[in-house]
Amino acid sequence: MNITFEKKDDLNAIISVVVKNEDYQENLNKQFKDYRKKAKIPGFRPGTVPIGMIKQMIGKSTLFEEVNRLTSEALYKHLQDNKIDILGQPMTSVDKPSKTDFDNYGDFTFHFDLGLAPIFDLKISTKDKLTRYEIELDKKEIETEIKNLRRQNGKLETMDKSETENDSIVLIMTEVDKKGEHKDGGVFEQEVTVLPEVVKSKKVKKQLVGVSVNDELDLNVFDLFNDNEMVITQSLGIEKEAVSGLNKTFKGKVKEIRRVVPAELNKEFFDLVMGPDAVKDEAEFEGKIEENLGSYYVAESEKQLEAEVNAILEANHKLTLPNEFLKRWLQETKPETYKPENVEELYGTESGVLRKQLVREKIAEQENVEVSDDDINQASFAYTAQMLRQYGLNNPDPAMIQNFEAKNREDKSYLMRIRDVVIEKKVLDKVKEMITIKSKKLTVDKFYDIVKKFNDKG
């Protein structure tokens, strides 16, 4: 067997594998003999079927499987032994045709195109400077959080009249023409629920406060839904393409007014939010809220720092990839997703993820980042607990977390995703040690102003 490797440029290569008759003949004959012993063919006793007949029956398929097995093993062994780092998988060459005649037991030559991973050095140092924000809580933040928790756990009551922008209004919406009559073919008596406090238009918000059941309002539908196309389509039950053709004026008849009566600050509420007997009075509850908010904003600050670390890594490592090879590979391996008409668009995202992964792997290798079973177990437990919190379980019981985690682990890809999360976290922590980070104290509002500017710029 002969293997040759030819670089076309820094990112593309051709690897050729020649399989000769002597490479496969011995094992092929063994397979024929094994099959001969088992073959049940009328007119022949087991083990007496002529080899020529066996070859006619299974020769071509067996030859195909054996040659392809030898080729694949030799190819990947050569890549591994010579530390050739590839992207994607080898593909049949478009420049050099392979020589394969499976009707005869001769020599075979296979040519494969390779996409090579770029060779690069890490560019991370103390010259890279970032800020870790220490968010200072004030009384207002704590009061707002308690107010929100009381509303989340309050009771919903039906009212005759809305009094504040926190009252939700159920409207029967009808699209009207200039005469104020139902537009022919337009939206008719569609029930929607709106919360005035989320409406950005001051005019519309004012219209919704102080109304009574059966009142009729002339509303600008685009202002009502903050010009959000997705919300408009879902609320009115129309197709996305129909939004641009809507008349802006709708009649909204008030069908119902709902008000959340906040939960009382008592032991029942404290136990519901914090867990049974976690706090005994309002002062302890407020202290726990302050502690939880502090932890939340520490996590938010670290999340922003890591976003900025990733931005530095991307800016410092403008890696060039074998783009045309990878586009072809994506179309051949996932034709249901990557098609000629969309591969350019989708490849932009795919290549960005790949560059990030290459830099991450380089850091992990250079800095000896390792992942233990304990790391994965802790991350899996934390991930499951976070998921339960998102479903409204503020303080899930450890036994419950373990039960849900066990179910998560039944998904074969779950632990692989968790491992990726752990590696990324460890890599980012390592990068934080390699750059310069200063601390700065600021308010919640100023912190989120910084986050918004960063996201808008990115």
Number of strands: 11
Low-confidence stretches: none
Number of helices: 14
What kind of oligomer do you see?
A: single chain
How many independent structural domains? 3
Round the mean pLDDT to the nearest integer and report it. 92
**What would you say the CATH architecture of the largest domain is?**
Orthogonal Bundle
Q: What proportion of the residues is helical, as a percent range?
A: 40-55%
CATH class of the largest domain: Mainly Alpha
Largest sheet: 5 strands, antiparallel
Helix/strand structural class: alpha+beta
Instruction: Spell the H/E element sequence.
Output: EEHHEEEHEEEHEHHEHHHHHHHEH
Bin the strand percentage: 15-25%
CA-atom Rg in angstroms: 33 Å
Query: What fold name goes in the CATH topology slot of the largest domain?
Result: Trigger factor, domain 2
General description of the model:
This protein has 458 residues and is of the alpha+beta class. The chain has 3 domains: 2-116, Alpha-Beta Plaits, CATH 3.30.70.1050; 131-136 and 281-457, Orthogonal Bundle (Trigger factor, domain 2); 155-261, Chitinase A, domain 3. Helix content is 49%, strand content 18%. The strands form 3 sheets. Strands 6, 7, 8, 9 and 10 form a 5-stranded antiparallel beta sheet that branches. The chain has a 4-stranded antiparallel beta sheet with strand order 1-2-4-3, sandwiched between helices. It has a two-stranded parallel sheet with strand order 5-11. A hairpin with a 4-residue loop joins strand 1 and strand 2. It is elongated.
